[in-house]
Amino acid sequence: MWILNNNIMRIRKYILVAGLFIFTIYSSFAQSIDLKNNECPAKSRLAKLGVEIFIQLAGSKDFREQIGASGETVEQVQAVENGQTCSALNDFISNNRKFNNINQSYKDTDKQVYFYKTDNFYYVFWGRKPEFDDRPATGPKTLFIVIKNDLSQFWEYYF
Amino acid sequence: MLKMNLFKQLCLIVLVSLFTACHEQELPTKERTEDFILLQNDAHFEGLVSSLKGNTNQRTATNYLNAVDLSRAITWYDSATAATFYSANLVTDVPSIKTSFLLSENEAGEVNGLIIEYILDVDWYNSLDEFPGWNAYNGQLKIRSMEGAVLYSTEIENGATKKLSNQRLSSYTCVTYNTVVGQTCAGPGGQEVCYPVYEMVTECFPTGSEGGGGTINMADHAWQTLPKRAILEVDYVLDPPGTLPKVCGDGMVSDGNGECVPKPDPCDTGNNILDSEEIQSDLLKIWSGSNANNGDIPMDERLEQGGWIIEINGGYDVVFFPPTFLRDPCGMSPPSNWKDLIPDNIVGYVHSHPFYIGENTMGPCGTGGETSYKGGPSRPDYVFLTELMNHLSNFSIKGYVIDGNKIYSYDYRYSIGIVKYNRCGY
After folding, report:
1. Hey, are the CB atoms on B336 and A135 less than 8 Å from each other?
2. Which of B20, B256, B325, B394 is most buried, by CB atoms within 10 Å?
């Protein structure tokens, strides 16, 4: 009986140590994810130009009217540089299976995600990295996500 | 002893230096023969091409010179002009056009270059049961300056000039024929089979009056160096001698890649550029090069193709993007010096989307692509056009996209929208 109790005690101790170990690992990992999540993507001159074109494009006029974005102007276009906003937008991507798949598929390629904004909307899309700003390339229409600035709604547009 | 050694070493260095200096100045001997000689990786020819490169900062010329295949050239001496000529292929992506670079070097060491385009008449080529020989050749011949200007343009019928579009040069007639310049052997050791290597030769010579009557005197122009003969090489990898060309049925034409496609409707769009016969011919080449003649071709085997649209001699032409523009089914990525490659007189740029409406482009274009291709220019296409316009400060430049269903024209007026045309000319 004494031997059995002693074994149970020992097992509890192991479980406690293992639990502490797992908790420590998880905490540091979670912290690193948070740090990464706050990072804003690099800015690109050509990516910004793409948003400016979207705002003026006749082909997107109906779409912009439908989502209430027809009042946005080229002058308002700027990169998202606030860590909290970038964190929220990174979460927005991670929490959507489709967007997350797209984001993952561009890892280790010459493309990256971009976050831009106007007064009332965020624009999330993928394009060539800023180091290619000196050489614009032709390419296919790809997903261009327009998000209300309170993150309450989003719309997909292929452009 | 030490002094002696030093003296010997000094002498040796002087001798080696002298030898090296002499060797550097002595380019490989040029044979003065009117026979055609095949050169391979010839240092003298490479040196001449380099000297031309060093003497020009003109974009189109540099572009041409960078595409010269230096590994293989034909040379001959022409006693009539007392000049040695060299001919080499230009590396291009369009199999139905053979482009050659012709270089002349006269007694005074003056070096001039010309570009020669030989455009197969695909209808003729595909109407044959057997190859009739070059003396029955049908197609187009264009001679361009190094700056890309068309100096001479003619259609060749049965190996001889059919009509001349450039009346300034109406006093010239060209004939085309084959000549053997060597042989090539292939096969495993001891079982090699050898074939003669032919080169197609086009001779242009004066017939009738020259100058006067409002024509431009040859001496005023760069094309005064128009050689007596222009060598045009045939790619025997693509067109091996003795093979029968593919024959297409009624209402079909070759797509330039060995397949028959329905004969395209000519363009009557009201758009001057699209309605130009030259542009329609170029669109066919672009579409053929895109390998998207039908929707059964796997999408990852298709390629975007394109070029600059230029205005020239009152008409339009396409200067195809050089091989340094990296291509895939979903885009073309230019080199960092792309601005230097823009030809003069540009009025637009055209490229293909090698897809048909409704196709799922996510496979070749990635997960961000369209599940159902809808056509029209993309964000990168607009960005490319905007960068082009900004660089040249020319906001009249238009973009054109051709796909399996439509032609789209777009310009800086994003708010005006896209003009769609039914597919024509390709």
Report:
1. yes
2. B325
Write down the architecture of domain B264-422 according to CATH: 3-Layer(aba) Sandwich (3.40)
Per-residue pLDDT of chain B (426 residues; tens, 9 = 90+): 444 454 454 444 444 343 333 333 333 444 455 677 778 888 899 999 988 888 877 778 888 898 898 888 888 877 766 778 888 888 876 656 778 888 888 877 888 888 887 777 777 766 766 656 666 667 877 777 787 777 767 777 776 665 443 333 334 444 555 555 666 666 665 566 665 566 655 555 444 333 322 222 222 222 233 333 333 333 333 333 333 334 567 777 655 555 666 778 899 999 999 999 889 988 998 998 899 988 899 999 999 999 999 998 889 999 999 888 999 999 999 999 999 999 999 999 999 999 999 999 999 999 889 999 999 999 999 999 999 999 999 999 999 999 999 999 999 876 677 899 999 999
Quick check: A102 and B387 CB within 8 A?
no
Task: Give A58's contacts in chain B (Cβ within 8 Å).
Answer: 414-418
Element containing residue B11 per DSSP (H, E)? helix B2-25
Residue A127 sits at the chain B interface (C-beta within 8 Å): yes
Q: Decide if A97 touches B, using CB distance below 8 A.
A: no
- Report the DSSP beta bridge partners of residue B150: B144
List, by residue range, all CATH 3.40.140 domains of chain B: 264-422
Distance from CA of B314 to the nearest CA of A (A): 29
Contact yes or no for B194/B184 (Cβ under 8 A): yes
Please indicate whether, in this complex, the C-beta atoms of A135 and B378 are within 8 angstroms of each other: no
ipTM of the complex: 0.80
Where along chain A do its domains lie? Answer: 1-37, 40-158
